Amino acid sequence: MTAGMRSVAQRQHLASGQDSDVFIRSDGLLVKHTRTGRDLRREAEMMVYLSGHGIPVPRVHDVTGDELVMQYVPGPRMSEEIGRRPWLAGSLGKQLADLHHQLDAVEAPDFLAGDGNLLHLDLHPGNVVLGPEGPVVLDWASATKGDRRLDVALSWVSLAVARLAPVRKLTRWRFLRSFMANVDPKAREAIPEAARIRLERHDRDPLERAALQKLMDPDRH
Ligand SMILES: Nc1ncnc2c1ncn2[C@@H]1O[C@H](COP(=O)(O)OP(=O)(O)O)[C@@H](O)[C@H]1O
Ligand SMILES: [Mg+2]
Fold first, then answer.
1. What span, in angstroms and rounded, lies between the C-alpha atoms of 78 and 75?
2. Domain range for residue 94?
């Protein structure tokens, strides 16, 4: 058996995201494997850059084209924590706002194309792990340059249009209210653009598409 085969055999499936499958290796490290053939080296480069600038991200160990090996951060995702401890919704909303403020302070790296400040573009509670040393931001695949207010608006939009059971809607509202109270109020102006980006990005179910289309119409809010 080759070393490569052994590492495939001895890993446990942890999660599958929008475009990747995530495994835990027997040495405790996490492997993110892309299903779409996207080059993960850019994501790794981004994470190394961010670590160097004090942003909490998993430590990168190794990267090939389609596999990124990184530190496994144990803990619930912020999205899970909102569900399990709804009374914390307000403080979790503020925590997400604080992560945006940390990003506000980081200059975008030269290797990203375009103009403007650093944007994650998918900073929703499902991409934040509440680790033993605090929140850690995952999934830097969409990172780009632009107006920071757009990044904040995307966080708002991705949670606002998610389909939830009625009992969860009050919790969501408390989370979003606290989030918006702790960010630049002008971020609201970027909501139509954020909805457009989200609509383009992935296949969405019809109800979510309708909600996003409503948000794209600026006369509605
Ligand atoms: N370093 C990590 N530590 C702990 N969990 C992780 C880590 N990286 C990914 N995950 C888990 O795997 C899921 C998918 O990873 P993610 O990078 O978000 O992939 P995708 O781009 O497919 O959404 C995450 O939502 C999270 O649950
Ligand atoms: Mg993800």
1. 9
2. 78-220
